[in-house]
C-alpha cells in the first residue's frame, strides 16, 4: 500500500514538472524583444581655458611635400601686384604762327564773298549803270550789314570813280572796288592787341561779351595766339556762373602750357580776376587774360557787376585791353550789344567770331563805325588756330575773290 502511494506521489511530481516546463516555454515565446541598448555618447571635449594645457595631438595620416600635388608642374603661382596707370600729362601743343594766318584762312570767307564782293562786282560789270543798278548795289551792301551811312558813302565814291573811269574792264572794276572797300574798313586803325604795358609786366586783357558769342573759346584761342608769338600767359577764369566754364578755359590753357586761376562755382568773379593778376605778377608772366561771365546786355545788375570786375582789376594795374566778343551772324543786334557794353567798360577792341559760313563781312565796317574802335581779331572756324589778327587788305581780298 505504501508503495502504491509513493508511486502516485512520484507520478504527480513528474506530471507537475512537465507542465511547468511547457508553460515556461510558451511564456518565453510571447514576451517582446527587449529594446536595443542606447549607444554610448561621448561628450565633446571642453574648450580649453586660459592656463589649460593643450590636448595631446592625435595620430593622423600625414603627407609629405613630395606627395602633395601642386599646380603648374609643382611650381607655386605668385600673383603680381596690379599695374598702377600713370596720370596722363597733357601734351603741350605748338600753335601756328600768327603772321599771315588770315591769308591761310581765306577760304573760310567763301560764302561772304558771294554775299558781298562777287555781288558788287557783278553789278558794277553791267554795261549801263542806271539808278536801278545803283539801288541794287546799295541793297547788296545793306544786306551784308555794312550799315546805312557807310553804304551811302561807298556808293557815292563808286559813282564818281566809275564816271571818271569810263570804260570798265573786269580787272579795273576789281581794283576800284578793292581800294574803296579797304578805305571803308579803315586801313589806318591801330589793330594791335595791346599786351605790353608801358611800365611793368604783365599786360592785362579782359574779354567781355554776351552768352553764346564764343567768349570763353575766344579767350583760349587768344592764349594760343600769344603763345605762338612767344608770350607767357596766365588765364583768369572769372566766369564763375556758367557750369564748366572754368574747366573749359583750363583745358585750353593746358594745351599750350598756360596757368589757369579759378575759383569756386558761383563765387565772386572780381575776386578771381584779382587773384589772376596777382599770380601773373608773382610768376612774371607776360600777359593775363581774364574771361568774364557772359552778360545779357539788358540786365542792369549784371552789367554793373562787370564794371566792378574792371575796377577791382585796376587796383593792381590799369587794363591794357578790353576786348568785346561779338557773333558776326547777329547783325544789327550785335551793334546794340556793343553800344551797351561800351557804356559800362571802355571797349578798346572787337573780336568778331563765326565770320565763316553764312556771316556777312560788312559787319566789320558797321561795328567799327558804331564804337569808333577797331576790329582786332576775327574767328573763322571751330579749329584751335582759326582765330586770326585782322588785316584789312587780306580781308577785302577774301571778300571779292581773286
What's a concise summary of this model?
The chain is built from 14 helices and 8 strands. With 402 residues, the chain is of the alpha/beta class. It has an 8-stranded mixed sheet with strand order 3-2-4-1-5-6-7-8, with helices on both faces.
Can you tell me about this structure?
The protein is α/β, with parallel strands linked by helices and 402 residues long. It is built from 14 helices and eight strands. The protein has helices at 2-30, 71-74, 101-104, 110-124, 131-143, 148-165, 170-185, 215-228, 245-256, 269-283, 300-313, 332-344, 363-371, 392-400; strands spanning 203-208, 233-238, 259-262, 287-292, 321-327, 349-353, 375-379, 387-389. Residues 50-54 have low confidence and may be disordered. Part of the signal recognition particle protein translocation system, which is composed of SRP and FtsY. GTP binds at residues 209-216, 291-295, 353-356. Pfam families: SRP54, SRP54_N.
Mind sketching the topology for me?
Elements: H1 2-30, H2 71-74, H3 101-104, H4 110-124, H5 131-143, H6 148-165, H7 170-185, E1 203-208, H8 215-228, E2 233-238, H9 245-256, E3 259-262, H10 269-283, E4 287-292, H11 300-313, E5 321-327, H12 332-344, E6 349-353, H13 363-371, E7 375-379, E8 387-389, H14 392-400
Parallel strand pairs: 1-4, 1-5, 2-3, 2-4, 5-6, 6-7
Antiparallel strand pairs: 7-8
Helix pairs in contact: 4-5, 4-7, 4-14, 5-6, 6-7, 7-14, 8-9, 10-11, 12-13
Amino acid at each position: 500500500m505504501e508503495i502504491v502511494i509513493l508511486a502516485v506521489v512520484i507520478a504527480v511530481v513528474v506530471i507537475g514538472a512537465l507542465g511547468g516546463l511547457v508553460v515556461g516555454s510558451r511564456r518565453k515565446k510571447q514576451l517582446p524583444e527587449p529594446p536595443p541598448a542606447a549607444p554610448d555618447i561621448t561628450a565633446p571635449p571642453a574648450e580649453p581655458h586660459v592656463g589649460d594645457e593643450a590636448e595631446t595631438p592625435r595620430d593622423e595620416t600625414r603627407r609629405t611635400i613630395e606627395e602633395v600635388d601642386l599646380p603648374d608642374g609643382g611650381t607655386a603661382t605668385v600673383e603680381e601686384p596690379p599695374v598702377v596707370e600713370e596720370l596722363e600729362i597733357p601734351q603741350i601743343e605748338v600753335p601756328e604762327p600768327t603772321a599771315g594766318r588770315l591769308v591761310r584762312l581765306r577760304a573760310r570767307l567763301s560764302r561772304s564773298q558771294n554775299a558781298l564782293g562777287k555781288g558788287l562786282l557783278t553789278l558794277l560789270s553791267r554795261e549801263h549803270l542806271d539808278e536801278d543798278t545803283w539801288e541794287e548795289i546799295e541793297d547788296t551792301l545793306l544786306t551784308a550789314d555794312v550799315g546805312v551811312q557807310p553804304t551811302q558813302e561807298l556808293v557815292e565814291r563808286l559813282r564818281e570813280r566809275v564816271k571818271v573811269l569810263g570804260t570798265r574792264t573786269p580787272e579795273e572794276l576789281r581794283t576800284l572796288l578793292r581800294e574803296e572797300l579797304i578805305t571803308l574798313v579803315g586801313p589806318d586803325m591801330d589793330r594791335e592787341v595791346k599786351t605790353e604795358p608801358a611800365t611793368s609786366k604783365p599786360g592785362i586783357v579782359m574779354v567781355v561779351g554776351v552768352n553764346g558769342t564764343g567768349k570763353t573759346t575766344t579767350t583760349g584761342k587768344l592764349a594760343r595766339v600769344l603763345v605762338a608769338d612767344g608770350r607767357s600767359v596766365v588765364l583768369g577764369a572769372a566766369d564763375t556762373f556758367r557750369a564748366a566754364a572754368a574747366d573749359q578755359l583750363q583745358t585750353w590753357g593746358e594745351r599750350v602750357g598756360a596757368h589757369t586761376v579759378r575759383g569756386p562755382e558761383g563765387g565772386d568773379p572780381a575776386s578771381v580776376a584779382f587773384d589772376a593778376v596777382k599770380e601773373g605778377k608773382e610768376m612774371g608772366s607776360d600777359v593775363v587774360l581774364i574771361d568774364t561771365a557772359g552778360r545779357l546786355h539788358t540786365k542792369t545788375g549784371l552789367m554793373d557787376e562787370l564794371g566792378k570786375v574792371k575796377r577791382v582789376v585796376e587796383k593792381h594795374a590799369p587794363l591794357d585791353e578790353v576786348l568785346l566778343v561779338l557773333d558776326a551772324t547777329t547783325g544789327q543786334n550785335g551793334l546794340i550789344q556793343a553800344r551797351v557794353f561800351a557804356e559800362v567798360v571802355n571797349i578798346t577792341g572787337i573780336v568778331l567770331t563765326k565770320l565763316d559760313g553764312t556771316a556777312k563781312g560788312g559787319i566789320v565796317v558797321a561795328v567799327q563805325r558804331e564804337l569808333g574802335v577797331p576790329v582786332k581779331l576775327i574767328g573763322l572756324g571751330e579749329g584751335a588756330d582759326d582765330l586770326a589778327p585782322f588785316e584789312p587788305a587780306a580781308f577785302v581780298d577774301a571778300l571779292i575773290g581773286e
